[in-house]
Design a protein that fits this description.
The complex is a heterodimer of chains A (432) and B (187). Chain A is built from eight helices and 23 strands. By secondary structure, chain A is of the alpha+beta class. Chain A has two domains: 98-300, Sulfite Oxidase, Chain A, domain 2; 309-429, Immunoglobulin-like (Sandwich), CATH 2.60.40.650. Chain B is mostly helical and 187 residues long. Chain B has a domain at 44-170: Cytochrome Bc1 Complex, Chain D, domain 2. Chain B is 40% helix and 5% strand. A two-stranded antiparallel ribbon of chain B has the order 2-3. In chain B, helix 3 crosses helix 6 and helix 5 (111-120) packs across helix 6 (131-144). Classes of the chains: A alpha+beta (432), B mainly alpha (187). At the A-B interface, strand 3, strand 4, helix 6, strand 12 and strand 14 of A face strand 1, helix 2, helix 5 and strand 4 of B. Strand 14 (299-300) of chain A pairs parallel with strand 4 (170-171) of chain B.
Chain lengths: 432, 187
């Protein structure tokens, strides 16, 4: 009882402290949320409300003990970061088959926090008791087998960092998104832990005539995709953990198929069944959906790979450069075909390009962070990035892409994304 | 030494046991056999050729009733779409600037309709329709698309025999199909 009371009063104190900070420092806080904070000089000239916490004064939060250890058994971000959440569209016709985006413009590094990982579901998010979950492996195998989750975790494990991207990220048609998240937020990256699919297939005795694996989820869509056997025997995994903890329900708890570099929906969540077969299932998701319609009326099917792509996340749409001078341009690049070899940046509307620095380690089929130091002269500018992967493939412009595929192709838009910066430093989508 | 002999015999026996086990189990001995009954309950995939379609049948007329009760709230009275996808019409639009993708205009294989409706529809209660109702509502959707007469009955054989109009329009993946010369200066 006593400790509960202490925790409650500490919580109350913290809330009132938070309120004071939010009220007093509102302007400065908003400034730090976008690129470039208000300079110290400006603050010294016009003392803002709340300046009692600034030098030479002693900040409020040093004058009393903070919250108790354990006041958050599962830690959450600072209340000052409460606006960094998934980008979920309002007023969708329904939210059962829908998607929510990662706020990539607000994140650093290459790992997406689990709570901000993008979501795309076709029949809602099932609540699965792992004790009652089973993986059935059947079809062209010597020993049709049922695995419990405990079974799956008994196999030798591996951990690897890979991105996942929805194939409709973004679509080709208007309205174009305003922010990096609106445009390319169906993209995240995590460290995945699980077992090599090859090992599990060998355990059941995969027969040589098996050419495809049909994977099915235990969701209300029983989502079904066919995977070529070459991928299954290469780097495919059955994963149960993400960034060190068990998968989140939105990411397929308790078991997900992971196909590094392949479009998101094939990485079947809540995986309950794998059937080894000689030809694909031609399921609804791989015929009427997730096929790429061309201007001549033909449609490409089994378009698995996500091609090389990049986007500048800072400065990006919705942000503002608050002063001239030094700014770092940074963003992320990735390719389903291996490693990113180079990222070029243009700050003059595509007239010239210079090479960005890549953050090591550059990993296969993972996000790669790039950076370029930049001096903004205060004049309007258009900035953009272009990724080149280890196969030599170069990320195309939107014009190059649509000259081949038209604008009704819906999936696999990996075009260069330009941002316009106006004289006030406001950043907007240069395509819009 | 008898002791050594028995150890050797034990080793031989153990390795024999392992080699026998290797045929009935995998290397790690993880998992248990799936029974035919268990597989039959979960193996709901229907091939594009109609393989694995269940027994039973349904008429267009009954399908209309099922559609009105189970589908029209989302897909519209005549399959014109709403919260759910448009299901009817659009034939002849796929190669135009405003393609309308429906079952009739875009789907390459009719048996996929049975597969998808059974596994995922209606969205609020998937896998709740009887096989007869799934045949019937598939028949009605095909009928509304002009692909089945109004007096037709659909079963495994007749559903497999339907040729979808857009069937020949699907191709493989030709990517990389777009080239950027990666200009560096004076672009």
């Amino acid at each position: 009882m006593a400790s509960k009371t202490t925790a409650a009063s500490a919580d109350k104190a913290r809330r009132s402290l938070s309120r004071r900070r939010l009220l007093g420092e509102g302007g400065a806080l908003l400034g730090s949320a976008v690129m470039g904070s208000i300079g110290g000089q400006a603050l010294a000239e016009q003392p803002a409300p709340g300046s009692e916490n600034l030098p030479p004064n002693i900040p409020d939060w040093m004058k009393a003990p903070g919250a108790d250890m354990g006041s958050q058994p599962y830690g959450t971000p600072s209340p000052f970061e409460k606006n960094v959440v998934k980008n979920i569209q309002a007023n969708l016709p329904q939210y059962i088959s829908a998607s929510g985006r990662t706020p990539i413009g607000d994140l650093d590094g290459i790992i997406t926090p689990n709570g901000l990982f993008y979501e795309r579901h076709h029949g809602g998010v099932p609540a699965i008791d792992p004790e009652q979950h089973r993986l059935m492996l059947h079809g062209l195998v010597e020993r049709p087998t049922i695995f419990t989750m405990e079974d799956i975790r008994r196999f030798p494990s591996q951990s690897r960092i890979h991105f996942l991207e929805c194939s409709g990220n973004p679509v080709y048609t208007k309205p174009y998104g305003k922010t990096a998240s609106d445009l390319v937020g169906l993209l995240s990256c995590a460290e995945w832990t699980g077992v090599s699919l090859k090992l599990v297939l060998e355990e059941a005795g995969l027969r040589p005539e098996a050419k495809w694996l049909v994977a099915e989820g235990a969701d209300a869509a029983a989502l079904t995709r066919s995977i070529p056997i070459e991928k299954c025997l290469d780097d495919a995994m059955l994963v149960y953990s993400q960034n060190g903890e068990r998968l989140r329900p939105q990411q397929g708890y308790p078991l997900r198929l992971l196909l590094p570099g392949f479009e998101g929906n094939m990485n079947v969540k809540w995986l309950r069944r794998l059937k080894a077969v000689t030809e694909p299932a031609y399921s609804r998701e791989e015929t009427s959906k997730y096929t790429d319609l061309m201007p001549d009326g033909t449609a490409r099917e089994f378009t698995f790979y996500m091609e090389a792509k990049s986007i500048i996340t800072r400065p990006s749409g919705g942000q503002q450069l608050r002063q001239k001078g030094f700014h770092e341009i940074t963003g992320i690049a990735w390719t389903g075909h291996g490693k990113i070899k180079r990222v070029d940046i243009s700050v003059d509307d595509g007239k010239s390009w210079q090479e960005a620095e890549l953050q090591e380690p550059v990993l296969t089929r993972a996000l790669t962070r790039f950076r370029l130091p930049w001096h903004w002269d205060g004049e309007p500018a258009v900035i953009q990035s272009r990724a080149i992967d280890e196969t030599g493939y170069v990320q195309p412009t939107f014009a190059e892409l649509t000259s081949v595929r038209g604008v009704n192709s819906y999936y696999h838009n990996n075009a260069i994304q330009p941002w316009r910066i106006d004289a006030q430093g406001q950043v907007t989508n240069a395509n819009a | 030494m008898p002791m050594r002999k028995s150890v050797l015999a034990l080793v031989a026996l153990t390795s024999l046991a392992f080699s026998v086990r290797a045929e009935t189990q995998g290397h790690y001995g993880i998992g248990r056999p799936a029974t035919d009954k268990e597989i039959a309950g979960w193996n709901i995939d229907i091939g594009r050729d109609g393989s694995n379609l269940p027994a039973g049948s349904g008429t267009v007329a009954h399908g209309r009733e099922v559609f009105e009760q189970q589908c029209s709230a989302c897909h519209g009275e005549k399959g014109e779409g709403g919260v759910g996808d448009r299901l009817v019409g659009g034939q002849g639009t796929i190669a135009t600037p405003k393609p309308i993708k429906t079952v009739g205009s875009y789907w390459p294989y009719a048996p996929t309709l049975f597969d998808y409706i059974r596994r995922a529809m209606p969205q609020n209660a998937p896998q709740s329709l009887s096989n007869e109702d799934v045949y019937a509502v598939s028949a009605y959707i095909l009928n509304m698309n002009g692909l089945l007469p109004a007096d037709a009955t659909l079963d495994a054989r007749t559903l497999s025999a339907i040729e979808m109009p857009n069937r020949s329009m699907f191709t493989g993946d030709p990517r990389p199909d777009v080239k950027n010369p990666a200009c560096e200066k004076g672009c």
